[in-house]
Amino acid sequence: MLCTVGVKTHNSERQIDWYKVGWVKRAHGIKGELYIQLLSKTADWLEDLKIFQLKPLPGGREDPQVLTLKRVKPHKQGLILLPEGFSHRNQSELWKGSDFLIDKAILQTEDGEKPYLIEFEGFTVEDVRLGVVGVVEGFMDNGAQDLLLVKPPHGEEVLIPFVDAFLLDSNKKERTLKMNLPEGLVDAGQSDHNFS
User: Fold this and answer.
1) pTM of this prediction?
2) CA nearest neighbour of 72 among 126, 35, 113, 102
3) I need a surface site. Which of 6, 35, 57, 112 has the fewest CB within 10 A?
C-alpha cells in the first residue's frame, strides 16, 4: 500500500512514497512504546529508519501522522519502538491497529545486494514452459517462504513461492523474473504462451 506525502528533509521538500510493512499490535510497557507486528520475517531496513507513518484504521480517532524514531529494537516477530514525543502508554494505546508505513526509498538496494521483495513489484513473471505468467502485484509470507502475488493475463491471481529453486534470473532493467515453475503450480490457461 503506497501513500504519497510531502516531508521536509534538510531544508528541502521531497515526496515520500509510504509503504506498509506492518501494524501496531499493541502498546508496550508504560513509557509510550509500540509493539509493531511486521508483515515479513526480517527488517533489514531498520538501520536506515529515521521517520515512519502511523495510519489509523478507517474511522479511527487520529489522523495519519509522520513520526520521528527515538529508539527501536527487534522483538519476537516485530519491533518495539518509541516515537519522539511519546512518553506514556495512553499515547501509544491510541494507535493500536494502525498501519505502520516506512519510506519506500529505504527499500531500494544496489547491484550485488540482496533485493527487497518490494523491488519486484510490477515485474513480469515468465516461466520457461508457459511464457508470461503475469505481473507481480504484491507479496505474502506463508511462514516457510515468501510468496509472489501474481496477476495473470487471464484468470485469478496466483501465489508463486519466491524460492531459489524456481528463480532462474531477475532483470531489473527489463523488470522480469524468469522462473522454472513446477508443472501444475500455475494453470496453463492463465498464462500467455507468447514467451520468447
Assistant:
1) 0.74
2) 35
3) 112
C-alpha cell at 167: 528463480
pLDDT tens digits, 111-134 = 778 888 889 999 999 999 999 999
Residues 67 and 77: their CA atoms lie apart, in Å, by 22
Sign of CA dihedral 107, 110, 113, 118: positive
Name the stretches of the chain with pLDDT < 50: 1-11, 194-196
User: For residue 115, what is the DSSP state?
Assistant: P
Q: Is 90 helix (H, G, I), strand (E, B) or coil?
A: helix
Positive or negative torsion for Cα 38, 121, 126, 44: negative
The whole-number pLDDT of residue 111 equals: 78
Q: Compute the distance between CA of residue 151 and CA of residue 155 in angstroms, rounded to an integer.
A: 8
